[in-house]
Amino acid sequence: LDPAKRFMDSRNARRVSDVETILNAVHQYVIDNKGDFPSGLTEDTEFMLGTYGASCDYYNGGCNVETGACLDLREDLAKYLKTIPLDPQIGIEEETYYSIFRDSEGIVTVRACAAEEMEISTSR
């Protein structure tokens, strides 16, 4: 048994759970708000979730965040999430290392930007 691999697998399992949790909260917000999306979640732009107002650019784990500032959904999702999940290895409130993207059809994708040796995302 490789302890390092077991820790990595554990972190990735947490990331899978976190992306599902975030997506479920956004989905419930949309339902409760008659189809409106959380403020700031514009079409065709991938955002890093977090509170950092400066640079949140990140290119890894399938993430292609170029927006320059994080998207803070704490207020919009407060009814559904006690806190926005943080990546278990490097996430902080300012930069969670989870991204969110809404396409022109209204499909929302949440990604774990710091996933290890795999891509982790879910869409609805």
Radius of gyration using CA atoms only: 14 Å
Morphology:
globular
**Beta strand count:** 6
Strand content: 15-25%
What can you tell me about this protein's structure?
The protein is α+β, with helices and mostly antiparallel strands. The protein has one domain (3-123). Helix content is 27%, strand content 19%. The protein has 2 helices and 6 strands. The chain has helices at residues 3-32, 74-77, and strands spanning 46-48, 58-60, 63-65, 98-102, 108-112, 120-123. The strands form 2 sheets. The chain has a 4-stranded antiparallel beta sheet with strand order 1-4-5-6, covered by helices on one side. It has a two-stranded antiparallel ribbon with strand order 2-3. The termini are far apart. The mean pLDDT is 93.
Summary of the model, kept short:
The protein is α+β, with helices and mostly antiparallel strands and 124 residues long. The protein has one domain (3-123).
